[in-house]
Design a protein that fits this description.
alpha/beta, five-stranded parallel sheet, 42% helix, globular
């Protein structure tokens, strides 16, 4: 049986080379009803972006191969990928309010989350952005 369109699970791409980060986010977001794709390097991330066109991307900046900013630049240069919301997930030591505004302004992202983080807070942020797109997760 085909899933109905009402049960469309929003797609989230998690791009991080730290397995614990990827696995933790994958478990929490899957429990919330998201369809998760993961990449541990920039080249795989680009491939998954073009193949699956996720509804949101959680993107680390320091990656093997292409770095996160290079991926973001390529996304913004492509009409199909340019409007996909991106949250940067990285280690930052600056004041979070100042840094959050900086990333939205400079990189065109939905802000960023610093490591270490509470995975449920990340999931809440994902929920907010996905809801603003008129989508809703579908827990099993």
């Amino acid at each position: 049986m085909k899933p109905s369109k009402d049960r469309h699970k929003p797609k989230v791409l998690i791009v991080d080379d730290e397995n614990t980060v990827t696995e933790t986010l994958q478990v929490v977001l899957t429990m919330r009803g998201y369809n998760i794709f993961t990449a541990d390097n920039g080249n795989t991330a680009l491939d998954l972006l073009f193949r699956h066109k996720p509804d949101l991307v959680l993107l680390d900046l320091v990656l093997p191969g292409l770095d996160g900013l290079s991926i973001l630049k390529r996304m913004r240069e492509n009409n199909t990928l340019a409007k996909i919301p991106v949250i940067i997930v990285t280690v930052v030591t600056r004041d979070s309010d100042l840094a959050d505004g900086f990333w939205r302004m400079v990189a065109g992202t939905e802000g960023f989350i610093t490591k270490p983080f509470d995975p449920f807070e990340v999931a809440d942020r994902v929920d907010t952005i996905i809801s603003s797109k008129g989508l809703a997760p579908s827990p099993d």
